């Protein structure tokens, strides 16, 4: 199999998960498309080296996270506010429309660092060490960000369940 066929096969298999990750990080389906496309272009350029790596998925995840970080550092990106309708709102199994809306609102309200940690730990199922390596932060930071994010999500979602407004 040549480089293009091998890369195309990888993208066909993993692109949906990379896109969902980008949506969770960005909170915007259109930006997520841009992030994934840019990350895949970087991945393709490095493919000869990447395919020999221990984990191609880890490299791809890191490319998506780093591309998202690069995008958030651009001043014109910070000026844009994102409408609720921009999110890819597929419901997790067993959740209704209201619960899904509350979950998306709560996730979007998390600070970017906490949201990245939650996505990698709980969507991708990475260990603390793998998350730290992907984000280039310490394991202690991963633990504290996860703890703070889950406490905030728990508090926000409990308020919604009790008829209050999310903070």
TrEMBL record:
Keyword DNA damage: no
InterPro entries on file: RNA_pol_sigma-70-like, RNA_pol_sigma-70_dom, RNA_pol_sigma-E_actinobac, RNA_pol_sigma70_r2, RNA_pol_sigma70_r4_t2, RNA_pol_sigma_r2, RNA_pol_sigma_r3/r4-like, WH-like_DNA-bd_sf
Record domain RNA polymerase sigma-70 region: where: 12-77
Gene3D superfamilies referenced in this protein's UniProt entry, alphabetically: 1.10.1740.10, Winged helix-like DNA-binding domain superfamily/Winged helix DNA-binding domain (1.10.10.10)
Pfam families registered for this protein in UniProt: Sigma70_r2, Sigma70_r4_2
Entry annotated with the keyword Transcription regulation: yes
Domain (RNA polymerase sigma factor 70 region 4 type) ranges: 101-153
Keyword field: DNA-binding, Sigma factor, Transcription, Transcription regulation
Family to which this protein belongs: Belongs to the sigma-70 factor family. ECF subfamily.
Protein name: SigE family RNA polymerase sigma factor
Originating organism: Nocardioides aestuarii
């Amino acid at each position: 199999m040549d480089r293009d066929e091998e890369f195309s096969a990888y993208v066909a298999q993993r692109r949906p998960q990379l896109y969902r990750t980008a949506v969770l990080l960005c909170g915007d389906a259109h930006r997520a498309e841009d992030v994934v496309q840019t990350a895949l272009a970087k991945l393709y350029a490095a493919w000869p080296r990447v395919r020999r790596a221990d984990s191609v998925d880890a490299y791809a995840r890191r490319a998506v996270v780093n591309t998202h970080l690069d995008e958030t550092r651009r001043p014109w990106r910070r000026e844009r506010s994102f409408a609720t309708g921009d999110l890819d709102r597929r419901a997790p199994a067993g959740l209704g429309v209201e619960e899904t809306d509350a979950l998306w609102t709560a996730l979007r309200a998390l600070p970017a660092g906490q949201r990245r940690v939650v996505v990698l730990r709980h969507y991708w199922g990475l260990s603390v060490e793998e998350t730290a390596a992907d984000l280039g932060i310490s394991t202690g930071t991963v633990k504290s960000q996860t703890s703070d994010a889950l406490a905030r999500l728990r508090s926000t979602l409990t308020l919604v369940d009790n008829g209050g407004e999310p903070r």
